[in-house]
Amino acid sequence: LLGQFGDxxxxxxxxxxLLPAPQAVTVIPSDQVLTVTWETVEGAEFYEVWLNTTDxxxxxxxxxxxxxxxxSVATGLNNGQEYFVWVRGITQAKSGSKKSAGAFSEPxxxxxxxxxxxxxxxxxxxxPDDGTLTVTWDAIDGASRYEVYYSTTADFSxxxxxxxxxxxxxx
Length: 171
Known about the structure:
mainly beta
């Protein structure tokens, strides 16, 4: 405002006060859980975390508000479902009642997964004549493949991975 009221009012441009987007946002998936972390945004008093099953921030759901931590845990999620996460910083306006939201982070995704269990009984059969090693184990419900590591040393240095689609395969 100009003229006689120029010294009484201070007007801030919304673009000038917008906080930058949080950086280094990471998602660590586990059983029905995504743990989200990010770097501190200078000037942010707290943060919001938003979640969606599609890469659309506009239709995402806020799962965390007013946290001053730089991490959040989303629970009760569906294993095998990819989720997208956005984080933004928030400041309190000088008047004290209005919030000013910063820019959203770039989307980061993660997929919670069911706990991994080792197979029950594992059997080994080595044929000395041809050097064939047969490894068998009980199938695990829900497993789509198995990873078998083998090595010629006890500490597994230089272990090799054999992707086994079935509980009985030749190595």
